[in-house]
Amino acid sequence: MSLRLDAPRRTTDVRRFTRAERWMHRTTAALMGVCVVTAACLYVPQLAELVGRRELVVRIHEWAGLALPVPVLAGLASRAFRADLGLLNRFGSHDRLWLRAALRRDKRAASRPAGKFNAGQKIYAAWIAGATLVMLGTGLMMWFTHLTPLVWRTSATFVHDWLALTIGIVLAGHIGMALADPEARRGMRTGRVNREWAEREHSLWRP
């Protein structure tokens, strides 16, 4: 009597991000991390005493902030990245359903329809892009003090400092959500995700 063994089921992966998109994300994350760490060293007294060399920390912070938009600008050369920007910039009726479910803490996949990016990711992308531009503008006012009146520089310092704190909180939430979703992290690390995950979490996405 022969014993029949079923072949192990294979899960098909689908491509989510190209290599150019992944490198752009990593470079942006590294620059943002440098900005956050150096800002903490400038504003937290205990860290400032531990690190010292304030002038060097200031220069690293300034140049990292100035370079922050560069990966995104370079990424515009990628057709895939431009296509993803178009998806991030569209907010449809299914996104409103996703947000209502999120506010109700309804975690059922069926109640959270999403395309390649869900409503939360779209809002985060728009917010962090706007916040980066504001930080760049206010930072330039603080750096080149001779270009603007004193009242502008004072206002820029106020906005820069408080927005930096807000960015730190939002980034912590972004990292926390990424840590809670290993498959999403794999997608950003390798460019590919499990098809079952894609169908469950992004039911309207057709890769």
Write the layout of secondary structure elements.
Blueprint (H helix, E strand, L loop, with lengths): L12 E3 L3 H25 L1 H7 L2 H14 L2 H6 L3 H10 L4 H11 L15 H25 L6 H30 L2 H9 L1 E3 H7 L6
Antiparallel strand pairs: 1-2
Helix pairs in contact: 1-2, 1-3, 7-8
Characterise the protein shown here:
The chain is mainly alpha-helical. Helix content is 70%, strand content 3%. The chain has a two-stranded antiparallel ribbon. The protein contains ten helices and two strands.
Q: What pattern of helices and strands is seen along the backbone?
A: EHHHHHHHHHEH
Helical element count? 10
Structural class: mainly alpha
Largest sheet: 2 strands, antiparallel
Approximate helicity band: 55-70%
Terminal Cα span: 45 Å
- DSSP, total strands: 2
Radius of gyration (Å): 21 Å
> What percentage of the residues does DSSP assign to strands (E)?
under 5%
Average pLDDT works out at 90
- Largest beta sheet: what is the strand line-up? 1-2
Low-confidence stretches: 1-10
Characterize the overall form.
elongated
Which tags fit this structure?
2 strands, disordered N terminus, two-stranded antiparallel ribbon, 207 residues, mainly alpha
